[in-house]
Amino acid sequence: MLSCRGLRKDYVTERGEVAAVAGIDLDVAAGRYTAIIGRSGSGKSSLMAMIGGLSRPSQGQVTVDGTDIWGLCENDLAAFRNRRIGFVFQFASLLPTLRLVDNVALPAMLHRDRARSAIYSRAASLLAQMGLGDHLDAYPSEVSAGEQRRAVIARALINEPALILADEPTSDLDEQTEIEIMDELLAVNRERGTTLILVTHNLALAGQAERIVHIAHGVIVA
Amino acid sequence: MRLLASLALQNLGRRKARSLLLIAAVAVASGVVFTGATLMRSIDQSMAVGFTRLGADMMVVPDGALTNITAALLTVEPTDLVLDQDLFTNAKLAAVGRAAPQKIARVEHSGIGSHHESADLIGFDPALDFTVRPWLVEKLNRDMRPGDVILGAAREAPLGSELLIFGKPHIVYGRLGRTGVGTHERGAFMSFGTLDALAPSVHGHGGGPPAALQKGKVSGFLVELAPGATPLQARFSILSTLKGVKVVTGDSTMSGIRQGLSALLDGIMALMVLMFASTALMVSVLFSAIVTERRGELGLLKAIGARRGQVVGMMVTEAVIATGAGGALGVVLGILVMRLYERSLVYWLENVGVPFLWLDTPRMIAVAAGAIVLASTIGALGALYPAWRASRRDPYDLVRGEG
Ligand SMILES: Nc1ncnc2c1ncn2[C@@H]1O[C@H](COP(=O)(O)OP(=O)(O)OP(=O)(O)O)[C@@H](O)[C@H]1O
Ligand SMILES: [Mg+2]
Question: For the whole model, what pTM was predicted?
């Protein structure tokens, strides 16, 4: 379902060009759980951003379900991010002025094809699934970091994406919370058949994956 | 879209102090623009009436004629000396804009007023007149016809009623406002044709009709300067070209007021342009900063699938709400200030001879709407560019906080 060919990302800095991703070919079959590991600065986040339509590759192609996503026009790419991808960032990524339920409903509200009430009831049930049923009306600043991350996962699921990209979703959380959140993601992968690509430092978490991709200096080494 | 509008509104609520400052700054600017525009249009409109009411810049009368200088150069004084009616038409003086001929005869036993009262019969050429009809405060709802007379403010006869002058029926066509000159207020004004028809009934000192009532002769001319010409230039060119005339200038402060007021209006205009420019600048600087501050959130919105138009729309909506509110507040403040200073303003203007008329409500509303639209446009334009630039970037760069 996902195929990357000759993917490169070069950043221009004052000290010259940095090749964050230096030529990656990667294929992921639908419904699989793939873990990406590698040292800090090896290019994992840059790769994820290119796959998720967030960062234009310097070279190469990303094809998702037959669509060359970087060949799409602006609005189609926005729709692709919205419909097909659920992105869970490395850091807090909720809008602070919106309640949790609004944050979760937001992607569906941006490209609206359902009634508002349907969207909101789905947002509420996703939050309830994540154990946040009592915090629908809470603002992000009123809940813990772990709860925020669960809300982000709920938001990633609102449009039933084909691919979830989770970039170290639990690195800043305690071990118990990390396990709980990973369970949620794995449950989505198993029960809904959503393809999951997870970046992690935690080798135990990576060990549960069907495939482990090891990246060093912008290339796949194993 | 309602969601983006409410996001914009919430964003304004996050930095209340900053939003309020922005609103206040826009309110001051749009208040000045609104007040300035209202005053300008009011004064403009008043001046159009006022300056014509001020009458002429100068009078040209036969040399040796007695003159009674009033602030309102409205008519010449009755005299036995006359000038040719086509004096100015033939001379074509560059410094003279308009020259309106008038005939004046002071008569007794005319049937106007009480038996022994004398009254001025004043003839004017409706095609050239610019000093008599601007004073009309009421008139019949039709054009002037032969046999119509306009009465001075002191005459009581109702509009449309029949008035016998030397036994001949005339219709009261209109009435002038108070000019402050007694002879005008008791006079009867009519076209040359109407006055000519009366001439045989009027007896001057020598028994025959007064000289001014002869065909082709007039008592004098009321002169308006050509645009840009000075009274001195006009006086010189009249005296050097026309023989046997005397030039009488009105109260010289009147021309001074005309210039003073237009300088004031120019000042208001310059201030408005300056306010507009500096507000636009401030709003765009502020919104560049706001966009930079919110880069991460904009990136996030893009990452979850917001289209560029939606991201730009949200920022522009935010700006339009703030500046539109500022604009509305400015209009309210402007109205309050004008109400507060209405008395002194109107007093001052009337003091210098400009009757002040407020803009009518529909025009006032139009000016207010204009000020609010202008303010929101400034906001929209100020936010548009930084928002558009940010929206072009990859969401990942925005989220990471890169340049
Ligand atoms: N916008 C940028 N400009 C310049 N260099 C960048 C930029 N983004 C990333 N880099 C560089 O590219 C390399 C890869 O960065 P990336 O964030 O992809 O690594 P990562 O594997 O996700 O690291 P971490 O595990 O710490 O998140 C790093 O050396 C980083 O310094
Ligand atoms: Mg990373």
Answer: 0.69
